[in-house]
Specification:
There is one protein chain. The chain is mainly alpha-helical. Helix content is 55%, strand content 0%. The protein has a domain of 118 residues. Helix 1 packs antiparallel against helix 4 and helix 3 runs antiparallel to helix 4.
Length: 171
Amino acid sequence: MNIPNAPLKGVFFMHFILSVWALQHSWLPVSYMYYNLIFMATLLWSLHCKDSEEPVFMALVIDGASVLLDIIVISVYYPLSDGYYRANFHFCAGMCILNLILRVVSIFVLLKIFHERGGRYDDLGIPGIPSGNYNDIDQHNQQSVPKTAVDTGSPTHDYIPANAPPPYQGP
């Protein structure tokens, strides 16, 4: 069975489930929910616009920013008091950390989808990722110069083929 947009749907459902499970406990701030909802909206937009690379690029940027935001949220809001150490909290914190780890995987999946939809890596400026065809105009290459009128294809030269009709003389 061939599911259209399977990698994109997989990324969506993976982050949706992990975000919902991470938000089951009250230790995360509301901002965690907001940037995850914006990420989910861009993924849905990517599913809707199947030919455009723009929504995938937006999802890629938000996913990359979410890695940094997740690290900040976990490091700042992770409680150090003994009152939070319950099974529910451990499960929610684990899902939040797992969501953070899988964001790196989803970035590479989104990069692949971005490339498949016509996006170019050289526009992103990421080192180590192959770019499209780039011609360095500053590099001086030796160009060949045409030697005859046949090489140029120009009708202004005096080359007349043997079977050509006589030129038009006018009335």
